[in-house]
Specification:
The protein is α/β, with parallel strands linked by helices. It has eight helices and five strands; from the N terminus they run βααβααβααβαβα. The protein is globular and about 45 Å long.
Length: 163
Amino acid sequence: MSAPDHSLLLDVNVLLDNYLPNRRHSAEARTLVALALSKGVTLYYAITSLADFFYLVSASLKREVRAEKGVVAEGDVRAIQRIAWGVVDNLSNIATAVGADESDRWVAARSRALHADLEDNLVVAAARRAQVEYLVTNDASLIGHAAVPCVSCSTAVAWLEEL
């Protein structure tokens, strides 16, 4: 897969920040996505992160319902699943999934001495596969250990503003 002139791979924490307004970096992530789309920057995400993304969106919505109602009823669960699927559908409209195969597992395993988190290493492998300019994350540990150019959301916003 060859990346276009300008491209970013968004880590799952940036995706969550973009879709969940109660997260600390939410406004920044929404600015990042809006700027990238307005400037024709291609956005990617690792397909290996999609199940976690779906689960975490659902869990956040369940927490909100529980805080409001005290309990999450069966109808709430069905509504939350529909919303989470809608979020995944929207993600596919703004970003392209980067697939994975055994070679990505190999890259992730070889990276564990540098950074021990398997999920993060699979995201790094996806960034390599897509040949993006930057992997964008709010995970300071990943930024410090990634074997690809990796920046925070705020740094990516500053970069996009300069394009």
